[in-house]
Structures are given as structure tokens and as C-alpha cells.
Amino acid sequence: MSRTLLAAVVMALFAGPASAEVVARTADSFTLRYAVGAEIAPGDIPGALTDLPKWWDSAHTYSGSAANLSLDLTPGGCWCEKLADGTVFDHGRTVSVEADRMVFNAPFGPMRGKTSRADLTVTWPAANRGWTPTWTMVVEGPGIGAMADAIDAVMGAGYQRWLHYLEYGESPDGAGG
Fold this sequence. Notes:
The protein is built from 4 helices and 10 strands; from the N terminus they run H-E-E-H-H-E-E-E-E-E-E-E-E-H.
């Protein structure tokens, strides 16, 4: 194996995609976790999160447009979507905002009314050359474990789009439109 090829293989191993997975699952619960090291300013994280229309995929909205999404980081604030008829759909609520973490009660979309707990925690611990923006979602409710893969697909894609926006300051292709 040539040194160039070996170097490329080593680089690929260390520059892989975000860690994203269902880390625990039972019939009545699941935990998702998404994390990747990034060279970002931790102060940019809250603002990037509230810029939902710039990174969330419109295909995963009720209105068909991410432009109708908003997020208020005040405790009790709404993670909301305004529908065409003026109805405001409450996807979740801000529970707490601290210097290095935010917690949301987030029974998004099809989980609404089916969960006894749906917590999304956003943290950003320091890493070697930056920070590790991390989403951890803990969901509990009768039979909810069967939804883990579908929710993982949407949340994992959302995390990737948010991370792109956070790192590059631009909407990822296909988001927000």
C-alpha cells in the first residue's frame, strides 16, 4: 500500500461523519445521540439553533416550509410552526438554557401525544481542536420504541443540517426552502 493511499485511509477514519445512533432502545423508550467535533465558536451555537428556517428541512414540517418555524430560547419558549391558516403548532418548549447546555421538551411531530417524556439536550463540550456540538434525545412512552429508527432518521438529518449551518454559516442544500 502506498504512503499516499495509507494517509488517505487514515484521514478518512478520523474525518468520518458525525456519531449518530440509537444508543438505547426498549419497547417503551429510546435514546438518540449525535455528536461530532467541530472548529466553531461555542457562542454561535444558540443563534444557529434558533435560525431554524435556514437549516431545517422543509420536508419535515407540517406547513411545507421551514420559513414558518421559530424557536424562543427563553425558558417556556416555543419551538413552533405557524400554519397557513394562522394556527401555531407547538412542537416543543424550552426547559432551560445554561452557558453550556440547552434542554427542550420536544415531542416533535408524530411523537406528540404518545410520549411521557421527550427531552432534547443540546451541549457543546470542549474537544481537541474546538467543540463537540451534541444532541441527546431521550424519549419514553408506551410502545414508543418502535418509532426510534424513523425519529433517528429525521433528527440525524436535522443534526447534520444544523452542524453544516453552524460550521459554514450557510444553509445546506435543500434546507429551508
